[in-house]
Amino acid sequence: MSFRGNLLTVSDVRKAYGGVQAVNGASFSVREGTITGLIGPNGAGKSTMVNLISGAERAQSGSIHFANQDITRLPTHRIAHLGLVRTFQISRELQRLTVLENLLLAPQHQFGEKSWAALFARRRIQEEEQRHLRKALEMLDRFSLLPLKDEYAGNLSGGQKKLLDLARALMAEPKMLLLDEPMAGVNPTLTRSLQEHIAALNKEGMTFLLIEHNLSVVESICDHVVVMAEGRVLAEGKMDTLRDNEAVVSAYLGG
Amino acid sequence: MNGLLYYLLIAAVYFCIYCIYCWGINLQFGVAGILNFTFITFVAVGAYFAGVTALGAPDGGLSGQYILGWHLPFPIPPVLGGIAAAILAVLVGIVGLRRLRSDYLAIVTVSVGQIAWFIAGNNVHLFNGWDGISQVPQPWNSVFHLSFTNYGWVFLVICIVLAIIGYIVSQALYRSPYGRVLRAIRDDEDVAAALGKNVFAYKMSAFIIGSVFAGIGGALTVEFVGAFNPSGWTTPETFIIWAAMLIGGQGNNKGMILGAFVVPVVFNEITRFLPNIPGHPQLIDSFRGMAIGLLLILAVRFRPSGLLPERKTLFSLVPTVKGSEGDDRHVLQG
């Protein structure tokens, strides 16, 4: 699957909060079919970058392209429609929806999500719901969450919520997943399990941009790694070569 | 006895109308998480517009001054009342819902309520100022020619029919994927947006539909009572509806029926029946508001999700025909 084009291209993007230049002319791209890692010390601008790419915030200059479309100024939901779906650093499950409902929410452009359809086209909605339900049950099975399908998502453990986040994002049938520190605060067993899921999904063709602090995870699953520091891209390449890069080492150690 | 029966009739009409209010505010807050602290203003807009479109042209006599005066037959005035409330909802929504924080809207609604109340009161040309509109004709009574008491039964039937429609609509919306998106926005709107839902459009639609419920309920009130003025829609009225929703169980349409019965009907209406305590003619009146406040505090402390809490939505696969099941598997594996 290698040597396909760039799915995501970030060009010279800037974003400041007052006097703080959080992202200061960052450029990088994510090639289709890869797991690209985005790493960097605290305050490097990774989280701001995630917010800019996903449309939660707007860049002050520069451009972001996804699947050959300019998404720099698009709102979050339009970016999701194009197939770029993000997860959140801290699990943000929809507490008073069941696990199954969390998944059923994700498919894009549902006919039954129109208010008038809810009143006048109930049969067609039911057919659609059954189709999504079948897929959601398979997804839950894949992530070992099937026994919890009717539990309120707010009652899951931290690790189960991480799996739910991933399963829910996949239900949207994205072209690319933007995972914001999926392993943060997760025990080693679950880290391994998440890692395996990500690798398996990648084999099936999914592209990932993975923001991650755990460098051994990054080393073992990422094809390509982008290092950010002080709002810029400091270096790019394979993790093992980056380990020997002096600028990278000093950014991490010196701060 | 006849008096009691008539009183119960009035209570039943109000019960139906409060059910409609509660489903409206439940869709806004209980389902979509929108803080509307001036629900009663949307009720009032519905009531005024239904009133002035049901009334004939002002003759400058006792009925005073007001706009329109189209003399339209039922059920057109309540429909127009609902539309008027919807238009106000769009205007308020454009200002208040674009910002992502829901407390921003809450402040906007409080301000809008105050502005609307003072405009309606001080501008005599719109809805006859503080005196309000009166002598609004009762639906179809020009056909029936019934006495006020007997006509009450006809009106109760109209209210029951509309309440049943209101319940069916509320349930259909709640149970649909549309309702699921609203509940997702209530829980975390950033997540809903990240999953491709247009949060502003959904909040706006829930705000509009809830306001239509308010407008229609207001229209029924004015067509029953025949009069409406600013003293009928003060801020405490909004909080009676809020209390009914919170005590009934936000997110549960059946809970709204219970809440509408317990708060506005039992505590607010039936308590008017309690005998006066000699020497303290205002005592029961004063205690009524305190009792509702106490009930609300107890509910929030001991049953925070209300008397009938929101229930889990469960799903089951409808078994498909054997052949198609096999086809499905094939497609999935291929």
Task: Give the SSE layout.
The complex is a heterodimer of chains A (255) and B (334).
Chain A: E1 6-17, E2 20-31, E3 35-39, H1 46-54, E4 61-66, E5 69-70, H2 76-81, E6 84-86, H3 99-105, H4 115-120, H5 122-142, H6 158-171, E7 176-180, H7 188-203, E8 207-211, H8 215-221, E9 224-229, E10 232-237, H9 239-242, H10 246-254
Parallel strand pairs in A: 3-8, 3-9, 6-7, 7-8
Antiparallel strand pairs in A: 1-2, 1-4, 4-5, 9-10
Chain B: H1 2-31, H2 39-54, H3 76-96, H4 102-122, H5 124-127, H6 141-144, H7 148-175, H8 177-187, H9 189-194, H10 199-225, H11 235-248, H12 253-269, H13 283-302, H14 322-333
Helix pairs in contact in B: 1-7, 1-10, 1-11, 1-12, 2-3, 2-10, 3-4, 3-10, 7-8, 8-10, 11-12, 11-13
Q: Biggest sheet of chain A, in brief? A: 6 strands, mixed
Number of E-type strands of chain A: 10
Strand % of chain B is under 5%
Helical stretch tally of chain A:
10
Largest interface: A-B, 50 and 37 residues
The value of Rg of chain B in angstroms is 22 Å
Helix content of chain A: 25-40%
User: What count of structural domains of chain A?
Assistant: 2
Calculate the mean pLDDT score of chain A and round it: 92
Order of helices and strands of chain A: EEEHEEHEHHHHEHEHEEHH
Structural class of chain B: mainly alpha
Instruction: Provide the helix percentage of chain B.
Output: 55-70%
Let me know the average pLDDT of chain B.
87
Shape descriptor of chain B: globular
Measured between the Cα atoms of the first and last residue of chain A, the distance is 37 Å
Oligomer: heterodimer
Q: What is the CATH T-level topology of the largest domain in chain A? A: Rossmann fold
